[in-house]
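sorry for the late reply, my laptop died twice this morning and i had to redo everyting from scratch. anyway the thing you sent over, i finally got around to it. pasting the sequence first so we're on the same page, its 114 residues, then the predicted structure underneath. double check i copied it right bc i was rushing
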Amino acid sequence: MHDRLLEPIEIGPRTLRNRIFISAHVPGFADQGAPGKRYISYHRQRAAAGVAMQITGGTAVHRSGLLTTAPSTLVNLDDTIVPGYQSAGCGQAAWTGSNSCRPLGFYRMPSCRP
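ok and here's the structure:
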């Protein structure tokens, strides 16, 4: 049943070494919004253990979408974040989005209006 788990798989232009991945999550190891040494080490350890793809938790792509300004949270506002992703030791995908329009009270932040 699991005989293909360790086989490579093509996803778009990339070939992953196997089919093992870690779903989106936020470890809270960013350094001023970017992947710092602790964040990169965290992902490299999982890559060394055999994980082929890791997905970051939700990251804002615009300042209006920030749920927090904590320096330990990743922020994708420009390309300065890319080198950190590239040094993770395996495939890395970012779950990006904007949380700027949300119900009043969600995360205790005001909602936006068109």
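The helical segments are 37-48, 82-86.
thats about all i looked at so far, will dig more tmrw
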